[in-house]
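Entry 12.
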Amino acid sequence: MLFYSADFYDGHRYKTGYAVAGSLTGPYTKAAAPLMTTETFDGAVRGPGGQDVVTGPDGQDRIVFHGWSPDGMRRRVMYGADLGFAGGYPVVRGSKVVYQAENARVNHAVIRDAVGALDGRAVGHIDHADSFVEFDVFAASQRPPRTPGAVRQRLPERRRRRRRRPGDGLARPHGQR
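Predicted 3D structure (tokens):
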């Protein structure tokens, strides 16, 4: 997988895309939609790019990247977010994901050319009782993942109410909590 930045970094249109290949030497196929944009972060991160993938102290993948400071377009600051994979495609915590049916597991249906579709293809002929499209979805969590067969704990009767702040769950500038 190859991550890259595109467009002019001096504005909100700067973005991160990716391409996939069967081997390091390619050929590479560009993804139909960017991985991170100002829009996928709902404006909380503007112009995300200049990315690198690192392993955190917990062994989980992270993507670090720069974007314009939250106080306006005065300077570029460093952000970091959880990076996961669903069905072989990258997913960044806090960035909206477009799941495409033609990239999922398709049973008793047809992937066909479709003018106007995101990457020119769509799933059709889902006409049978056993027709389906199945997605793998990455759901980042702050809690460590459960091991199969782990015992579930009951929640206490009283639940602590958590106040939500603007930007909760989104990538934050490096060093901010």
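Annotation: The mean pLDDT is 77. The chain has two domains: 1-86+136-144+169-177, 100-134.
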